[in-house]
Amino acid sequence: RIDFKIALLTYRCLNCLAPRYLSSLLRLPVSSRLACDRLISMKSRTNTYGCRSFKTYAPQLWNSLPQNVRIASSLAQFRSRLKTHLITVAF
């Protein structure tokens, strides 16, 4: 359930549907050689809580999603594909 919420928030950030302060926490690759639908993973400064922060965990989760989920053209389509993927992974 947490993964669903974080992935949904990440999608909103990448499609300008979330507040700017959240969108600024995510970094897109600058090089054209890198996949345009992937995010740059940030390293946390602390091992205790840093790995659980949105800035650190959202890119890891986003990059682990299949491409057909990441490239959804609408929020409703993304939500549907994400639910299907997460249920498939769980079972």
Q: Describe it for me?
A:
With 91 residues, the chain is mostly helical. The chain has one domain. It is 53% helix and 0% strand. The chain has five helices and no strands. Helix 1 packs across helix 3. The longest helix has 16 residues. The chain is globular and about 35 Å long.
Summarize the structure in short:
It contains 5 helices and no strands. The chain is an all-alpha fold and 91 residues long. It comes from Daphnia pulex (Water flea).
Q: First CA to last CA: what distance? A: 14 Å
Whole-angstrom Rg: 13 Å
Overall mean pLDDT score?
82
Strand content: under 5%
For the record, the count of structural domains works out to 1
Helix and strand content put the structural class at mainly alpha
- Indicate the overall shape: globular
> How many individual helices?
5
Q: Helix and strand string, N-terminal first?
A: HHHHH
Helix content: 40-55%
Low-confidence stretches: none
The total of beta strands comes to 0
Tell me about the biggest sheet? none
Itemize the secondary structure elements and their pairings.
Blueprint: H1 2-14, H2 20-23, H3 54-64, H4 67-70, H5 75-90
Helix pairs in contact: 1-3, 1-5
Protein name: Tick transposon
Relevant terms:
globular, 0% strand, 91 residues, 5 helices, mainly alpha
